[in-house]
Amino acid sequence: MPTQDPECPVTQPPSSLRRWLPVALIATGAMAGAVFLRDQLSFETLRDNREALVAFRDAHPVTMPLLFVAAYAAIVAFSLPGALAATLTGGFLFGVFPGVLYNAGAASIGAVAIFLAVRAGFGDGLRARIDASDGAVRRLSEGLRANEVPVLLSMRLIPVVPFFIANLIPAFLGVSVWRFAWTTALGILPGGLVYTWVGSGLGEVFARGEAPDLGIIFEPFVLGPILGLVALSLLPIALKALRRT
User: Fold this and answer.
1) Residue pair 91/103 in contact by the 8 Å Cβ criterion
2) Residue ranges per structural domain of the chain
3) pLDDT for 196
4) First to last CA, the chain
5) Is the pLDDT of residue 11 over 60?
6) 235-245 pLDDT, tens digit each
7) 20, 117 Cβ separation under 8 angstroms
8) 5 φ, ψ (degrees, to nearest 5)
């Protein structure tokens, strides 16, 4: 039986290094962004630089959307505190349409990036441990997997679960990339549309020296339809429960 040469150090398999590298990069970027960009990704920054942004957009009508989507996706992927300001910026620069498409697309790209990094790092191992366990955690995991689409959509439509956590849970449970991507893109559209619409009116808000009304999403005429979509997304779960009774 071969033995390890005592003078030869034990090294980590390259596959393990590659598996953890995306998680390490995202964690490093998140910490660096929280330290150096915390005060830059804000409504105040947009207000103070609005003329330069508009001028750049007008001078580079193709480059600007690409740069915006890349920056917004990076904010989401690294879980930086600026997603709402980015959504407002998308509406301010590009209008409700195509601004909402840029916003939803960028947020989805960033969410998929962190989802893939976490799943590559320890999603499969954690899922195996959950499956091997016995108790409430395993039952909760099985319940979520049995109703993946309704649960994923409801988490996005009404973000009672923070966006960052909603990216981690599916990675831990082994949700397919395609299912995670389309439920994310579809689920964030209603709320994203509201804030993109608010952002599209920031020109007048800036002219009056005011701040945008971000609480508009809780107004009945906005919240009501969103809650209706949540109820619709959870209908399959309710029907399954009724069949079992």
Assistant:
1) yes
2) 14-244
3) 93
4) 60
5) no
6) 666 656 666 66
7) no
8) -65, 120
- Please give, one letter per residue, the 3-state secondary structure of the chain: CCCCCCCCCCCCCHHHHHHHHHHHHHHHHHHHHHHHCCCCCCHHHHHHCHHHHHHHHHHCCCHHHHHHHHHHHHHHHCCCCCHHHHHHHHHHHHCHHHHHHHHHHHHHHHHHHHHHHHHHHHHHHHHHHHHHCCCHHHHHHHHHHHCHHHHHHHHHHCCCCCHHHHHHHHHHHCCCHHHHHHHHHHHCHHHHHHHHHHHHCHHHHHHHCCCCCHHHHHCHHHHHHHHHHHHHHHHHHHHHHHHHC
- This prediction's pTM: 0.79
Indicate if the pLDDT at residue 13 is higher than 60: no
Radius of gyration of the chain (CA): 21
The torsion angle over the Cα atoms of residues 63, 68, 74 and 77, rounded to 10 degrees, is -120
Calculate mean pLDDT across residues 36-51.
79
Distance between CA atoms of residues 237 and 39, nearest Å: 42
Total number of residues shown for the chain: 245
Conformation bin of residue 185: beta by default, left when phi > 0, alpha when psi is -120 to 50: alpha
Mean pLDDT (the chain) is: 79
Q: How far apart are CA 172 and CA 165, in angstroms?
A: 11
Task: Report residue 97's pLDDT band, with 50, 70 and 90 as the boundaries.
Answer: very high
How far out from the chain centre does Cα 222 lie? 21
